[in-house]
Amino acid sequence: MRELRLNSSDFADLSTEILAKGFSFSFKAHGSSMFPFIRDGDILTVQTTETKSLCVGDVVFFRSITNKLTAHRFIGGTELPHTRLLKVRGDAHFRQYEKIDEKQILGRIIRIRRGDRVISLDYLFKRKAGLFLVKIVPIISLLIWVTSIPKRLGLRLLKNDAEQ
Predict the structure, then answer these.
(1) Does residue 140 form part of some domain?
(2) DSSP at 101
(3) End-to-end CA distance of the chain
């Protein structure tokens, strides 16, 4: 496979054109917002999709209002008179989510390649696993917060001792 390096603006423009013509393409993921599901350096394949066919738990590829392309998990939506607002979140962002207009969606991630391993996200089981992640992330967030209480208390006690 031939590798093409583009700046983020050119990548956004080319991605939009490829998907608008009904083709799929692959690209190397950068960042950690979807860790551990998607890792920095994984090769993601995206294909065009109708927003109505999205299932909670799917990983969507979208253009942010700052023209940055992102792959995050679809966690819900709200119907408005002339559009639909979608809630998306990176798996590593326990509490944060973003609302985007359905027109910002370019496609859906259908495959992850990590070394020699290929993970297809088209199968019903994999899509249900995504739904499970959507449900479990708030519980993980709560567990992290609860388990950090002793640390926060200890730090507060140390600070009080140091001030005396």
Answers:
(1) no
(2) E
(3) 65
